Amino acid sequence: MTTRRLVVLLLLLAAGFMVYRLGLDNPPSTAPGGALVDVRLPDLGPEEMHGEAVFKLNCAACHGVNAVGIEGRGPPLVHRIYEPSHHADAAFVLAVRNGVRSHHWRFGDMPPVDGVTPQQVDAIIAYIRALQRANGIL
Ligand code: HEC
Asked: 56-80 burial by CB neighbour count: b if 16+ within 10 A, else e?
């Protein structure tokens, strides 16, 4: 490889890196948007309320408060795709522990969520199932 080619290559790499950094410093101005589904809210029992609180802290940033989804961030879990016969409770346990490789949507991958205990995941599942039932997703 000639020196000239090497210089061009290095310049391209540097430019690429700067574009990458710019992307990091200035996230796209299209702020994540609104809910993706309308959700009817049921009365919640104690475990479901606990699940709601844990969900708000750990999941709602992407899946939205009340699991309605957030445009540009993450899918609604109150959705036919996640009915128990298609995504059994184990899918929630695995999603939290291992993350999810994007396959149903175009939001990108879900990273593993640290610091949520198995009991808390159970409570989240109870909460999401209650929301789903109240919205005809059985
Ligand atoms: C950083 C964003 C983000 C966070 C935080 C997040 N998720 Fe996700 N989650 C996603 C995305 C995006 C998908 C959809 C992946 C796809 O395209 O199928 C997803 C998918 C899922 C799925 C479906 C799994 C499957 O097998 O298809 C479940 C269940 C889930 N999330 C539960 C949770 C729970 C519970 C929490 C909180 C403890 C949580 N998520 C936190 C982004 C997130």
From this structure: eebbbebbbebbbbbeebbbbbbbe
**24 CA to centre of ligand 1 in angstroms:** 23
Q: What is the pLDDT of residues 66-103, one digit of tens each?
A: 999 999 999 999 999 999 999 999 999 999 999 999 99
Distance CA(121)–CA(118), nearest Å, equals 5
d(CA 28, CA 87): 32
Give the residue whose CA is nearest to atom 41 of ligand 1.
Answer: 59
- Chain-centre distance for alpha carbon 38: 18
- What the block records as the tokens of 97 is 């522990």
Residue nearest to atom 34 of ligand 1 (CA): 59
Measuring CA to CA, which residue among 52, 24, 43, 38 is closest to residue 126? 52
Best CA proximity match to 63, nearest among 96, 36, 95, 23: 36
Q: Is the pLDDT assigned to residue 28 strictly greater than 50?
A: no
Residue nearest atom 9 in ligand 1 by C-alpha distance: 110
